[in-house]
């Protein structure tokens, strides 16, 4: 079974790291990326994803390169803490707790989100519904709270909403948006 791999966009959505920082680290070859498929799209391993998550969890005073963090995690993926010098100790279990939870949620997306050309032209929807992942993300970004969305869609639960929003963030719509995005300026 092949190891899971994640695109830079998926890595940014799961870890909260800036997409530009991830792409810069790949371009500078600080973090190894594999080229997959005929298109040669760059994919990162789970260890690389966790390295970016750990970099995001570090306080601003502690500056490490992506390559350093990646090598530390690659040497021992189950490492409980990282000691830097005599004064800095990083509890990796605690620092990566939220990322591991989001990673598990994202891995469940294959069971929850479906793409069927017969349903809304192949847009990613929540299984058994016509609710798109993008619409859930849009409502959350517009300020709706989870309870109001659950009130509108009682068949859904919190985890499903979280998976849909994470999936939509990791897989944004391609191309130019349709329709007018702002009122006509006068």
Question: Key features?
Answer:
single chain, about 190 residues, Multidrug-efflux Transporter Regulator, Chain: A, Domain 2, Arc Repressor Mutant, subunit A, WH-like_DNA-bd_sf, Homeodomain-like_sf, DUF433
How does the major sheet shape up?
3 strands, antiparallel
Helical stretch tally: 9
CATH class of the largest domain: Mainly Alpha
- Under the CATH scheme, the architecture of the largest domain is Orthogonal Bundle
Question: Into how many domains do the coordinates divide?
Answer: 2
The best one-word shape is globular
Q: Overall mean pLDDT score?
A: 82
Pfam family, one: DUF433
InterPro entries: DUF433, Homeodomain-like_sf, WH-like_DNA-bd_sf
Explain the overall architecture.
The chain has helices at residues 8-15, 19-27, 46-57, 66-75, 92-95, 97-112, 133-141, 146-152, 158-170; strands at 5-6, 34-36, 41-45, 81-84, 88-91, 113-114, 125-126. With 186 residues, it is of the alpha+beta class. The mean pLDDT is 82. It folds into two domains: 5-95, Multidrug-efflux Transporter Regulator, Chain: A, Domain 2 (Orthogonal Bundle); 110-170, Winged helix-like DNA-binding domain superfamily/Winged helix DNA-binding domain (Arc Repressor Mutant, subunit A, Orthogonal Bundle). A three-stranded antiparallel beta sheet has the order 1-3-2. The longest helix is centred in the middle third of the chain and has 16 residues, at 97-112. Helix 1 (8-15) crosses helix 9, helix 3 packs across helix 4 and helix 6 (97-112) crosses helix 9 (158-170). Strand 4 and strand 5 form a beta hairpin. The protein is globular and about 55 Å long. The chain contains nine helices and seven strands. It is 47% helix and 12% strand.
